[in-house]
Each structure stands twice: as structure tokens, then as C-alpha cells.
Amino acid sequence: MKERLVDGLKTASLFSLGLFFLSFPQSVSVSQIFGGFTIATAFPLFILDPESKKTWKRIQNPFLFFFGIYILLFLSSLFHTENHSPFFKKFLKQSESGDFWMLFLFPASFLVASREKNQTILKRFLFASAFILILLGCISLFSEVRIGKFVANGFKYAPGDRLQHFSGTIGPINLYLPIGMMNTHLTFGGLLGLFLPGLFVDWFQSAKKSFVFLLKTLLVLAGFIILFFNQSRSIWLGIFAVLFLLLLKGTFSIRKNPIYVSIKAKILAGILLVGLLSSAGYLFKNSWLIQRSISQIFEVHNTENQRYYIYKNTLPLIREHWLTGIGGGNYREFHWKESSKMIEKEEQLWYELYITPRGHAHNDLLHFLVTGGISAGILLILFWGKLFGFFFQNDFNSSRGIPILAIGILSLFPAGLFQCYLLDDEVVLPFFAFCGIFLGGRLSSDPRNNSIAKTNFVFETGKNLRLENPYISSNVYKFPDINSKLKKISFSNFLLCFDTFKNVFLHFQKNYKFPLKTSGTIVVPILLYWLFWIPRLNLEPLEVYNRRVRASDPALVKEVQKNILKFESYKNVTDTNSNEFSDVTSDSKNKSADITSNSKSNESADTASNFSQSIPSALTAAQASLPFQVEGCLTHHYPNPPRPRKTPFSFTIYISENSKNLPDSAKITIVSRDSFDQDQLYWAHGETDLGTIQVDLQKGTNPILIPNFLLETTPKEFPEGVFFRDFRISYSGFQENEKIELPKLYFGKICDTAIRLTR
Description:
The chain is globular. It has three domains: 2-447, no CATH class; 448-536; 547-746, no CATH class. The chain is built from 33 helices and 13 strands. Residues 443-480 and 569-610 have low confidence and may be disordered.
């Protein structure tokens, strides 16, 4: 009876895990059902089946490392709670530990994958899952509607559903950001990161002349194309890091995997490569989203999707709570307290910090450090150390098991330095399943691949010397002299100990590089991460803040953004050019001095120099005459609940005294725009034109005062009832066929250059 129950549980756990692999690219809810069923059928085997008990010993360390993180989050939350009655409700629903049950899929999938007979079946399930994921990505690339919402609504588009992000065009065909059936492109990118490295290695090591190889080629090619359009730059980095490590290990060695191709095949491959490079260049030229994603990597003065503000206000929390952390579920509250301090100093950052996502730290290691303390960070590093240590101790080959298909889990370590993939339930559940496949599949085929098992194997080999050593054979005991026999036995024991010690020494001499490689693989990405972010985090918030600009021409958007001034460090220059502007700004010079002193003095001098210089633009007169809309300021003041603004809006247009081809007038339309978080509500801002003014421009300062369009309302909470006052500007009077010079814009603290606001 017990044997039948055990066999039934083994079969049920295998197929429930397979159904989980088929379902997670399509539905999070359905995959969680199959994941839970896999856990329910696999864990009893650790008690009922003696073989499974041995398997548990091999998986318990990495499992307990991650489980320890959840325990620390719980204890830290308990430490910071003031009222214990709603504690468990908040902890389970809002904290990072709400999905802790998903971790149990790790040992469950390890157990299923550790059985040799399950390898082939699981491999087929994995390929089918990858095919479904990439196919859905291809469909979403050309779909204006979000497939997940479309299917959930009964294959209908419901009014109000958020559409896909437009990416670019290929001729008459519109392209969109591929997300499959997921909610965000980062989630879909994380799933691609789990699959693509393993698929690529499996493709490289497959037999080259077969129909299956052709199918694998198409699957891998489609997967990387979808990854390119998905624009998850963190996953780009993660996949590149894994492939680079595999290259260093010799996985892509031509000697190990010789490729015999004809001249005709080489020509076709060359044509295909040229075609791919040309297509990539064309797509880059015609996709503004791809251009923005790549250009932001090299820009210092940008918010990087609010990551600057996320990290800037997370580091003080780590410094203050480095030992115990702030507890699970408390990150949003603690981070907002730090953000409020920043808003108190610079009120124009209110909306920017309000829409900054603060559900997590957008860095797995940073988030567990701030919520669970230093111990949680150490446990996370030890967990990754187990995975990378296993990677370096094994020579992966797709023909000997399935772990190579799950090697993409390693991509989430470098990728997780820029995004919290381990807090996304749509990613972390398959991640834990892949961890079990990665460790379980290989260990089941050769126990000597495990470092502990290798050491035991060395000692067992030494013990077996008794069977081979003539000094300790049965013939030794035939000597009648007892003293001689004892000498022989002592000498044989000495040889046994010497040989055992020599084997152990040679083993560690051969494998001492593994810990160094493992630690290096973990430390180097962390160092590179901080080298990337330290120069950015040393900037002042206003240096990073960019007002949003919209126009029909992307070149005009960039040019306008470059000509929006953020500081008043140029006041000495403007004093010599215009006494009027000097009088207007006199009230704020003391305030701006604080900003200038915080930013570096040489940076202030550079700003002043750039302000006074006449810098020709690459735009044509026709481009510069197009209308563009600049983000203005809010109708209400901080704090929350908001206070209505009483002072009229104003800003300044400055034209350099050295300008040659300058506009003589500007048409300014005041636009009312909503201020809610579009990403959170999945809804676009509504806009209304309130009025238009026409102003003549001259060299020097041109103060623009907007006398009307204030609101006397007193909303209960931001952003309800609070609106932006944006400015749609179009210049006229540029001379044709000459280099134009775009005027500079300055909005003061909060659109108050003409009449200064005091708090």
C-alpha cells in the first residue's frame, strides 16, 4: 500500500510540475495552482520514501538560506510593528514574505528532476514551455491590445483597458513592446532570461544536420529578437553575463563541438548575418523606444525610470537600519518618509517622487538588505554562491541532462541588481522551479559532481586500496612472526593514510579555484553596479530631474530638454544682460546659493558659461518652429492635503545676446493636465487647452507671466483635484537655410520666475 502511494505521488508530482511549466507563460493563477499541487505531492515523499530523504540532504542548504531570509523579514517586521492586531494581515498581504510558499517549489522540483527517468519528460515540457513563451511574445509584438487582458475579458477589448506601448514601425507594420501574457515587459523579460541562455547552449551543442536543429534555430532566433524588442536592459546584461561565463568555461569551444559546414552554408550564414545586422540598424532607426533604452544607458543626467530617486532614498534607510532592517511590508512607508524630506527641499520634485514606484528597491540585494538587515543580505549571497559554485564544479553538456536548460537562473543575479525579479511572483515561482531543475538534474546523474560527494569519494577510494595493496592482502597474515605481521600492518596503514592524504590534497589543489571563481562572479557584478551608480547618486536631485517634453519630432524633444535650465547659477551672467531679470530673481538668490554650493563650484561655472554662449542647434528652421509641450507646475502646493496656489504661474525665455538666427515671437498655450500616476492606474492623462497668449521675443530675458488659470479648490488628498499647468510653445521668425539657436527656458522653483513664492 505504501509503495503504491509513493509511486502515485511520484507520478503526480512529475506531471503537475510539467503542467506548471506549460501554464506559467500563459497564466499566473493557473501556474500557481499546479505549483501548489507539485508541492503537495512531492513533500510527502521526503517522509515516506527513503530515497527522497537522501535527496533532501542535498538540497537543504540552499533552501534553508532563502528560507532564512523570510524568517529574518518576519522577525524584523515584528520588531518594527507598533500594533500586533493587524500585523499578520499586513505582513502576509503587503510584505515580501507573502509568497514565501513559492520557495517550497524549489525542493519539490529538485526531487522530481533528481530521478533519472524523469529527465526526458521534463526536457520536453521545458521546450514546450519555451515555445509557448516565445510564441506569445511574437504575437504581442504586433498586437496593440494586451493579450492577457484581451483573453481575460473573453477575447474582447474592454474600453479603458491600457493598450500596448508603441515601439516603432517596419514599413506599414506597427510594432509594440512584447510582453506575452504578462503584465509588464520586465516580467516577460525575466522569463526570457530563464530560458534563452539554456536554449542557446542546447542549440550550439546539438547535431547540426537535423530537422530538430532547424526548429531549435528558429526558436532561439525568435527568442533573441523578442528579447531585443522587449528592452529589459537588466536581462540583456544578465544573459550576456551567463553566456560570457560559459564562453570562459569553454562551453562554446569549436574543438569540443566541431562544426562542419559547406561553402554554400557559409555563404548563406554570411548573408543571414549581414541581413540581421542591417535589420537591427533599421529597427534601431525606426524605434524610438529602443533608441531611448540604449541612449539612457550612457546618460548620467536622467532618472533612469526613477531609479535614481529609489536608490537615493534607500541608502539612508540601510545606514540607519543596517542590523535589523525595516521589516517586510514596510519599505513603501519608510521610503516615502525619505522622499518627503527631499520634497521639502525641492517642491518641484513632488509629482516625480509621488509617481516613483516604491513597492521595492529595484535591486534584489539592496531590497533584502534594507528589509531584513545585513544577515538577510549575507544569506542571499550564500544562496547565489551555492548556484554559481555548482555551475563552476560541473562541465555542462545538454546530452547528459536537463540542467543546461535551466542555466538561465544565473542571469537573474546580475539582472537583479537593477530590478527586483525575486519579488515578482510571476518570475520567482518559475525561478524556484528552475533552481530545482538546475541542481537536481545534474546531481542525479553523477554524485561525484557535488563537492562533498567528491571528498567522500576520495576517502572511499583510499579505503579500497586495501583490496589492491599487497601489504594488506590476506597473504600478510600468513607470516608466523607476530612482530613482523604488526610491522607489515603498521606500514600498510601508513601507506593508506599517505595515499588518502595525497588524494585529498590533489583534489583540493585541483578545485581550489572554484571558491575563487564563485566569489569573483558575485563580487565583480556588485562592484560594476556601484561604479555605474556612484557618479549618478552623487548628483543633486535637481541635476537629475528632467521636465517632460512632448513633440512630433524626437530631435526637437532632445533639443528642448537640453535648453531647459535647472539652476540659477547663471545669475551673474544675466545680471550683466538684464537688470529687469536681476530684480525679478533677487528674492531667490539666497535660496539658489544653497543649491549652487551643494553642486560643485566648477559645475556652476560650466552652467554659467553654457548659458551665455551661443550654441547653434542641428535643427532646421521648420523643426524648430514645430509646437512642443513642456511639463509645467501643479495647481496646488505640498504638503498633503494640498493647498491651492495663489501666485500666478510664470517662467522665463532667455535668448543669448550672441544669437544670430533667433525667433521673434512665441505662441504659448496653457494646458490643463491630470496629475495621477498613469502607470498605477493604467490610464492616460486627460488634457484641456485653457487659453493662448502671443509674446514678442528679444535678446536677453523674456519673463512670461500667466495671470489666470489658478484653482481655488481644496482637495482632500493628492492627486485628486490637482492638475498640471503645462505650456505648449511654438516659435516663429527663424530664418531659413541658416543655423538656428533655440531659446533657453527656466521655470524657477515651481514656475515662479516673475513673482517669487515664499513658504
